[in-house]
Specification:
Bound molecules: flavin mononucleotide
Strand order of the largest sheet: 5-4-3-6-7-8
Order of helices and strands: HEHEHEHEHHEEHHEHEH
Largest sheet: 6 strands, parallel
CATH topology of the largest domain: Rossmann fold
Number of domains: 2
CATH architecture of the largest domain: 3-Layer(aba) Sandwich
Strand content: 5-15%
CATH superfamily of the largest domain: Flavin prenyltransferase-like
Length: 302
Amino acid sequence: MINHHGPRRKLFEELVGEFFSPWNQSATNPCSDHSIAWSARPRAGILAHNEIMNSMRRAIQTGALKPGTRLVGGAATENMRAIRRAAHCAHRKVALRRRDTLFREKSPMRRIIIAITGASGVVYGVRALQLLKEVEDVETHAVISPSAFRTAIDEIDMSAEEIKSLADVLYNHKDIGAALSSGSFRTAGMLVAPCSVKTLSGIANCYNDELIVRAADVCLKERRRVVLLFRETPLHAGHIALMDQATRNGAIVMPPVPAFYSKPNSLDEMVTQTVGRALDLFDIHLPMVKRWKDGPGSPGQH
Ligand SMILES: Cc1cc2nc3c(=O)[nH]c(=O)nc-3n(C[C@H](O)[C@H](O)[C@H](O)COP(=O)(O)O)c2cc1C
């Protein structure tokens, strides 16, 4: 029998409209999962069984009804035209949805490059991959330097394999012939989390001998977002000059400095907040990020 809260019901009602939902049929006209008792709405009118069947076929093709759905009972209904309209509407919506999906898959806005380098705070890059895994229409393209894996040994309880498995697409850091090396491979940009002095230097100086720096340089030349969670402390003039140069090249230098006004309960929350704020810069807005609220006694915005 019908699952009253099932996804099929939701899909049907979304596409065809509640009025025609088989789940709306009366109890005296029970429906099985594969049948619709249209006779639940008998009306004086033309028995246009074929036309109704055609409409149903169309609804099945569009996914609004399950394949194998049968029309049971009398099919007399004055609403036949409306059924056709509903099926047509369902067809159109599904077509639009498909087109939208295709568009999204090809859209540059939905691919993001995540690079993890050997600075302290490998967890930032790992968290970015974890969070983005939950975002349906974002595809992560990851490059992880050998030093990042080395740092991970000291900092987090995850194996190299576990970290790698978080990426949708993983690249070898040495492969300067990878897709990310070309501007024709369209992405929303690149997050380097964390970003070491070495990688910052490479990006500032366009020293494109490995994939992370090359991909960042490509994003910058294509005027795409590059966000660097640069991590070192304290800083000498050379570091500051590199930040300045990277900024002039178009990158956003965002040292992972925690905000305390959000009163984080744990290190974990602090990391998520920082990564969330970095992803904000790519217009990826995660629900767990704490946001500024106006009002008396509110902390300042940062
Ligand atoms: C545990 C650990 C922590 C490190 N922390 C930093 C750091 O905070 N900032 C930094 O620039 N380098 C740091 N390093 C050194 C970098 O890993 C090193 O400079 C490396 O060459 C960076 O290479 P990459 O940018 O290709 O990952 C750290 C290394 C280790 C092992």
